[in-house]
Amino acid sequence: MSGLRPNQRHYFFFDGVDVNAHVMPGSITADSVGEVGRYGDKGATVTTDANGVLRAVFHLPAETFYVGDRVLEIADVSAYNSIDSASTSKGFVTYRAYNFSVEKTSLTTSTRSPNFDVNTTVTTRNVARRIRGRDPLAQTFFVKKGMGAGSNSVYLSNIDVYFRRKPTQTGSGSDDSSPLNGVSLQIREVVNGYPTNRILPFANVHKLPADVNTSEDASSATTFTFEAPVRLDVEKEYAIVVQPDASDPNYLIYTSKVGGIDLTPGATKGSAITQDWGDGVLFTSTNNSAWKSYQDEDIKFTIRRHNFNSSSGTVKLTNANHEFLTLSNITGRFTPGELVYQLLSTPADTGITTAAGSKTITGGQALDTVYAAGDYIRIVNTSTAKIQIHKIASITNATTAILETPPSFSGAGTHMPVVAGELDLYDVQRNPYECHIAHSSATTSKQFSVSTNLVGLDSTSTANVSAINDINLSYIQPMIMKANDSTSRTTLSGTFVPPSDTATTYLKPMQFNDNNYFAEKGVVLYSKSNDPAGVKAFTINVAMSNGSNVTSTPFIDIEASKLIAYQYKITNDSDTTAKYISKKIELAEDLDAEDFNLILSAYRPAGTDIKVYIKAQNQYDFDDFDRLSWTELEKFEGVGSYSTISNLRDYREFKYRIKDVNKTGGVVSGPLTYTSQSGVFEGFKRFQIRIDLLSPNIHNAPTLKDYRGLALT
Q1: CA torsion through residues 205, 206, 212, 215, sign
Q2: Does the pLDDT at position 120 exceed 90?
Q3: What is the mean pLDDT of the chain?
């Protein structure tokens, strides 16, 4: 986050709750959000740098906050109720914990909701105008239909604006001892000709003063390149907003004003400006809400759209290098989201040296034979015994390595190679002996192993790894966040490994945002340590095309896309499989029953079965109902009937009845007979139904649509 008070500690509040204990300082060298890694421990002090940039990592605690739009507020005061009255520096980030519609064809918001600039820290002023106080400055523009070349949208790549002046350490009225403020550029929605506070997704770019170009003749452009292509709809108006940090008045931006003189070098230099360009208006505001227009003046800017050279392409999405582990001998309590690791057998080298803020480690021996790029290293500081885990970016030589993130401590230490990952699933209440790890660092030479302790970096918990599993799935929901326009198209398929032949793969057509079942062939998802070379495919393929329109493209938001996987809890054993048990039914007075039939509609593919049981009790049986035994019914219609495996809605009808062997005299006309601790009884007053779903595998499972029971006298 930029634009905050420099060199100042800031505090964090999520949904109004103090969460500083869950926040870690971020990498001080990171220039973008994607580069920010942890740079210290949870609860450590987080301070902005000399440019007012704050870098931090917030670990959202599980089962603590409600879903929906939740705001992380950051301020330079330690009490939440003092933010409005006492803070001099504050900002916010909106966290959205719910599903968006994955199909958007007409909204400019593309795959993400717009961000709302509700603070009064706004933009800059153009022309030889000084930006004072909190006055924002905006320039509207109109996207004409012809710019889409047949498509109803275009995608922006970057925007040039032209600055006359920026803050410096000397001159321009700046205080020599004060830090330098950066500047942000945004693209916003326009309503009824006026800018709004709705910022388009990916359309907010920040630059430090060193990256801002200035000139005396409006010839030197400052290019703001967007993180991702920004979608604009044709026949719609938008606004460019330029906003200095802390509303710094030392930014000056060039405009063109009717009656003014052209400063740009070239044939028109020195000539009078006689007309406005006509497709936009310059605005200023004192509160970022009410805007004043300048009909004869406009910012000097250049907008560039993307032209796409290819008419088709494919995005291949794979699982996040998961490990599916079974644990035993657990000590402590692991924290979901923390880094977990196993020490490898290579001996430690005590000659390592680190420097706080530097990604370079030196002094080790044979680092080039112990590590490779992508491996993880555990570093223990000798003087403080503090432990940190870092990813190797590159190996320079036998005594020097470069890390992806810098250590937060300096001095001598020990090092050891580890295999590590992020604890993705750990439910201590339901099953503390199962855990899933994401982003495993396992390679062909370094993997997680059984009979070795797993260690939590933050919790310091330990557990023995009893098994590294590969899992079968029943069906998946690919929640692919995508946007299409009038000419672009996307289709979905998957490449998977079947359980029946793990040396092969098969291609499966799929649907977006829907249940995709593996009923025909099944699928195996491998732990990374069991497939370190990555040859066992589990790939989601998104085919993209734009109808040969160079301005058009489908848009796939990879960061916002998720795949939800499901497993049926089903076996071929009635003791362990999934089952349905009805509530206890009490028959009306004087309507006691002697027999029972059940009719059900179900999807029952070949190789599976559905068994039905009844628990019945006579009105004179005073034994505890729950202690009575179940009596299996026999299927007398639909015995050889099986559903078509490719049609999950191929429901068949099956009929069940009480077996003759469970009737008095063993004849079809006899009443139900059962034995309890109170004696032998005929007929029943109350009953309960149990339906068992049986299958030898979890991908080819029967499903129950409905059932009807008939108590007969």
Answers
A1: positive
A2: no
A3: 88
State the maximum Cα–Cα separation within the chain, in Å, rounded to a whole number. 116
Tally of CA atoms within 13 A in the half-sphere of 58 that contains its CB: 20
Name the 3-class secondary structure at 336. coil
- Tokens 């190797």 locate to 392
Q: What is the CATH number of domain 579-712?
A: 2.60.120
Backbone angles phi, psi at 409, to 5 degrees: -130, 165
Quote the DSSP letter at residue 661. Answer: G
Distance CA 600, CA 542 (A): 39
In angstroms, the CA 676 to CA 621 distance is 8
Beta pairing partners, 654: 600
Phi, psi of 665 (to 5 degrees): 80, 0
- Check: CB of residue 606 under 8 Å from CB of residue 645: yes
Note whether 115-305 and 579-712 share their fold. yes
DSSP β-ladder status, 453-456 and 475-483 = unpaired
- Using 50, 70 and 90 to split pLDDT, how confident is the model at 132? very low
pLDDT range class, residue 350, cuts 50, 70, 90: low
Domain ranges of the chain: 9-98, 115-305, 472-566, 579-712
Alpha-carbon span 22 to 9, nearest angstrom = 16
pLDDT in tens, 527-541: 999 999 999 999 999
Single-letter amino acid, residue 426: Y
Q: β-strands 103-104, 475-483: how paired?
A: parallel
Residue 229's pLDDT band (cuts 50, 70, 90): very high
The whole-angstrom separation of Cα 563 and Cα 237 is 36
Residue 81 phi/psi, 5-degree rounding, is -75, 0
Residue 229 CA, chain-centre distance (Å), reads 19
Report d(CA 533, CA 527) in Å as an integer.
11
First and final CA of the chain: distance in angstroms? 76
From 75, 71, 235, select the one nearest 147 (Cα to Cα). Answer: 235
pLDDT at residue number 98: 59
> Phi/psi of residue 103, each to 5°?
-120, 105
Q: Would you state the pLDDT for residue 121? A: 34
Buried b (16+ CB within 10 A) or exposed e, 559-596: ebbebebeebebbeebeebbbeeeeeeeeeeeebbbbb
**More confident of the two residues 208 and 539:** 539
**Architecture, CATH, for domain 115-305:** Sandwich (2.60)
The C-alpha atoms of residue 306 and residue 631 are separated, in whole angstroms, by 70
- How is residue 373 annotated by DSSP? T
Q: What pTM does this model have?
A: 0.81
